[in-house]
Amino acid sequence: MTDLPYPVSTTAPVSGEQLALALTTTTVPAFVTGPWEAGMPVIWVNEAFERLVGVGAEDLGLLGPHPLLALVEDDPHRAAAQADLAAGRAMRRIVSARKRDGGVSWLQVDVTPMPRAEGEELRWVGVTTDVSEYVDQQAAQLASLEVERRERADLDLIAQTTELLGDLEYPFALRDIADLLRSLVPWSGFYLNDDGLQYADGVDVASPPTGRGRRHTRYVPETWHVDLAGDPSGVVGGHADVHDVGTAPSPDAAPAVDHVQELLDGVVDGPVRLDLSGSYGPHTASGWLRRDLVRRVVEESGVVPRSVVVHAVAGRRRVLGLLATWHGDAARGPGADAGGRAEPAPEHIFTVVEVVARRAGTAIDNARLYAREHRLAEALQRAMLPEQADVTGLDVWTYYAPNAEHAQVGGDWYDVLQISEGTVGLVIGDVVGHDVEAAAAMGQLRSVVRAYAYELTTPGTVLDRVDQLVTGMRVPRPASMVYATLHHVTDDDSWSVEYTRAGHLPPLLLRDGDVRLLSGASGSLVGFGTAARKTGREVLRRGDVLLFYTDGLIERRDRSLKVGLDTLVEMSGRITARDAAGVGEELLSRLADSPEDDVAIVVVRVPDPVQDAQVTALSPRSRRWLLPSEPASIGRARHAVLRTCQAWGLVESAAAELVVSELVANGVLHGWGNIALRLFDTGDGLRIEVEDANPAPPVATDGHPNRVGGFGMQIVERLADWGWRPAGTGKLVWAKLRPQPMQPDEPAPALG
Amino acid sequence: MIEIATSSTTTTLVIAGDLDLAERDQFPEIAARVVGLRRQLLVIDMCRVTFMDSTGAAFLISLADSGRKRGGATVLRGADERDLFVLEVCGALDLFRVDHDHHCEQSDVSTGATPVHLPQRHRPS
């Protein structure tokens, strides 16, 4: 047994009369109606209902069938609720009703069928509850949720545009951003002002950051002149900053003010609304933009736009272009009344478009400025890079590795010049330091040496004149160099060398396994000579190798220069390669393990046609070349491959030539800086590596018609396995030729 | 080096040397002149071409394509297997009538490399 804490009620149960009285006097409005088939006549209402509605049951009877419906506003759920009533099921719904004071109240109406005896007519009892407070609260919540959702969507859109702006090399970046904006407005598009406005799908980063141009003459056909009597002007969406451009046209009216040009000139900040029915001069910004916009919007949406909003796409110094958005106010022809005007666009759209326009402006400006700086640095550095002319009759290999983090040039340099038929000039030099100033001094010195080299041939004389000029030029850094000339004697097809040294390490002469330092003709650093320069001479034999280098090749912190030079001589004595590239490769593989300074090397070999064909060298089967980024390098790379294939006895030279040509052409076209070419004999096919300083990966296009050489990588793919990886600050593209079926009948590949 | 010769019906283009990116600067002018001659038949003589890559192929394709648009035909003469391979990879062999019967006068210097069998698509005869 449980003891209840209070006594169980013993009072008498509530009587029926009391219940009826309770229903009548309660503050909850209640009513009783007849059956659905009879039009649900209101039979009884309580006092609260009368107070709420203001009429009694008798007055409601005057309203005809379904009198309660007359009291509430129509709503979309009415049909479903009525189906419930017709079927005799209980029904609950929320309806709105006009209050007597003119306001709206929300009522929850519960209508329940009353139990009835057999043969009795169905009665419904209804109770209404005022839920206005809750409905309003919910509406406010929904509204704030909607605002939040929209803000999130706007932020998301801005984030997406930022991502797209990150890669302006993609040719449709602006078009994609405009497409994104079209989730907010029916049409949007970018225009850039590069010597006149033009529609822009993407940014030509190669074009300098202009924003210039006050005559907009790119041809756009006149498609549709919006001829409206209506006045389209008006403040856009309550946005106070929007200036109206143009007024309603009239035949006599003077051309409207060119507000778009003012926007481009930065006179106004914008955005401005451009009235597309205005009349403007044909080459004005507004006139051009009106023609182009009408044509595009009509083409894409089939609707004639009446006005657009134009935002400035501003860079650092000037406005680079425009972002035009059409908000969907179709021109409805003459006679359209004020009601035909489009709803003013919500404020947030302007904010988003403005933000996108600003970001685009900054990104375009940055991309173009960077591209310009990059081109400038590239051009200057390329102009200063060492050059190797193709010299006839000699096998020449050069190597240049500046030890600078951010530059491609240092203080070291070399020059190989074909001075005249049978005379080759050769310079190797080193300006102290490896910074930009050293590179600049190097550039000056190089020009001076070149100038005299072409004029005077005897090395001592050339250096005397260089000394004189450099003393007067105030070249800021001391420099050392070797200048040598090689002469071809036609009678016996032999070569001789003359050289002079200005404080530079002696060149090496490699002959039949012996190494000799050409240490004669020495003198002080360039510009410091007081005595006349001397000239050393050597007669060269077939198979001789001359080795010119800078101290970066041998200088290490942990050993003296003397020890380094001894090591070089010792290493050189062991070189077995019978081509200049092979000699260089052996040197680098043994010496330039961790260079601490710039390295420049020139290897000159006098070919020995008889011996070279008979002896197969045991030198490492890898080669490397550093090629300037210019089209002529492509041919040189092919020759290098042919020569190497011949030296290694590889038969796939035709395919190798094709692959290397495509890879180097890509490097020249899309790469940055010098191109490093490496070849390896894997024993299972030739491996070709091409490295440049552009980190962007190669793209195998499907042969885009506008991209010359778009098939290049497809050719590579057919002949080789290929791939790429980041290397240093740039990338390395490799290709390994697939082994060709061996053809025993075929002769050895000929020299190209 | 590229030479243009013309008769009443035929334009003949004699190409010598390498046909690669290094030669690209002269392509537009030559293409304009060939198109300007408006001959129905264009013969491209490649006997003395030492090398052609995709850039060179793109040039030949542009010539053949503009010829075809006017209802003309382009004959390729003296192209070696490798040149045809390049055109095939570019998907452009159909643009050319390849003259297989032609024998170059100086066939020994026609290419820089020994003929090597490159993978070839079966060509419809």
TrEMBL record, chain A:
Gene3D superfamilies reported in the protein's UniProt record: Histidine kinase-like ATPase, C-terminal domain (3.30.565.10), PAS domain (3.30.450.20), PPM-type phosphatase domain (3.60.40.10)
Family annotation (SMART domains): PAC, PP2C_SIG
Q: Does the keyword Aminoacyl-tRNA synthetase apply?
A: no
Hydrolase as UniProt keyword: yes
Which top-rank group of organisms is this from?
Answer: Bacteria
The protein here is known as PAS domain S-box-containing protein
Residues forming the PAC domain are 88-143
PANTHER family, per database record: STAGE II SPORULATION PROTEIN E, STAGE II SPORULATION PROTEIN E-RELATED
Q: Which residues form a coiled coil?
A: none
Sorted alphabetically, the keyword list is:
Hydrolase
Automatic annotation (TrEMBL), chain B:
InterPro entries from the xrefs? STAS_dom, STAS_dom_sf
The cross-references to Pfam families, in alphabetical order and at most eight, read: STAS
The lineage, from the top, is: Bacteria, Bacillati, Actinomycetota, Actinomycetes, Micrococcales
Protein name as annotated: Anti-anti-sigma factor
STAS domain location: 1-91
Annotated region Disordered: the residues are 106-125
User: PROSITE patterns from the xrefs?
Assistant: STAS
